[in-house]
């Protein structure tokens, strides 16, 4: 393995950590309706547990209501039950073939709780990025130890990895701050 491979690998893994954070933050609900809130809901479909998006069409009916249109008529009750039993605190209501999922307004206490969750997710992402930096630095030291790279090359590469780490941590901070503003806006 060469220095460029180590840096590229660290870069790819740090970007993956950032994408995971974006995904996790997307699941934290704000006062606004978002079909992605229901990504974690699984429905019993003839003995198999499938994600809700694979048995129904999800859409936004308005700013605070998600519409769920089952693809099969008999699935409505199962979908309602799955949404109700999920830990999202949502109460779906049937209207013919359409299931309406109103998103309740959040009180101040719940917003503060969710802000703590968001900060925790951000901290986890920072830890993952720092661990990737440590791994890359250890690989660089091993190259020097095996006499495959000079100490000057190692130091330059470590500085580049540190710059990448700083950039990624700044990005994490920015994502967390944006999500906190979304939570406190309503």
Automatic annotation (TrEMBL):
<comment type="similarity">
    <text>Belongs to the RRF family.</text>
</comment>
<dbReference type="Pfam" id="PF01765">
    <property type="entry name" value="RRF"/>
</dbReference>
<protein>
    <recommendedName>
        <fullName>Ribosome-recycling factor</fullName>
    </recommendedName>
</protein>
<keyword id="KW-0963">Cytoplasm</keyword>
<comment type="function">
    <text>Responsible for the release of ribosomes from messenger RNA at the termination of protein biosynthesis. May increase the efficiency of translation by recycling ribosomes from one round of translation to another.</text>
</comment>
<dbReference type="GO" id="GO:0005829">
    <property type="term" value="C:cytosol"/>
</dbReference>
<feature type="coiled-coil region">
    <location>
        <begin position="133"/>
        <end position="167"/>
    </location>
</feature>
<feature type="domain" description="Ribosome recycling factor">
    <location>
        <begin position="21"/>
        <end position="184"/>
    </location>
</feature>
<keyword id="KW-0648">Protein biosynthesis</keyword>
<keyword id="KW-0175">Coiled coil</keyword>
<dbReference type="InterPro" id="IPR023584">
    <property type="entry name" value="Ribosome_recyc_fac_dom"/>
</dbReference>
<dbReference type="InterPro" id="IPR036191">
    <property type="entry name" value="RRF_sf"/>
</dbReference>
<dbReference type="GO" id="GO:0043023">
    <property type="term" value="F:ribosomal large subunit binding"/>
</dbReference>
<dbReference type="GO" id="GO:0002184">
    <property type="term" value="P:cytoplasmic translational termination"/>
</dbReference>
<dbReference type="InterPro" id="IPR002661">
    <property type="entry name" value="Ribosome_recyc_fac"/>
</dbReference>
């Amino acid at each position: 393995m060469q220095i460029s491979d180590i840096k590229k690998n660290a870069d790819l893994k740090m970007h993956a950590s950032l994408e995971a954070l974006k995904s996790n933050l997307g699941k934290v609900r704000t006062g606004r309706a978002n079909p992605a809130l229901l990504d974690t809901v699984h429905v019993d479909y003839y003995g198999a547990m499938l994600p809700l998006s694979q048995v129904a069409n999800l859409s936004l009916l308005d700013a605070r209501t998600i519409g769920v249109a089952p693809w099969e008529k008999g699935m409505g009750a199962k979908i309602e039950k799955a949404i109700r039993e999920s830990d999202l605190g949502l109460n779906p209501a049937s209207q013919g073939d359409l299931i309406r999922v109103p998103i309740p307004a959040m009180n101040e206490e719940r917003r503060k709780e969710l802000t703590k969750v968001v900060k925790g997710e951000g901290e986890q992402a920072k830890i993952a990025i720092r661990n990737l930096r440590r791994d890359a630095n250890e690989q660089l030291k091993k190259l020097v130890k095996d006499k495959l790279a000079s100490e000057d090359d190692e130091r330059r590469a470590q500085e580049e990895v540190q710059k990448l780490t700083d950039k990624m941590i700044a990005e994490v901070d920015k994502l967390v701050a944006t999500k906190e503003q979304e939570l406190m806006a309503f």
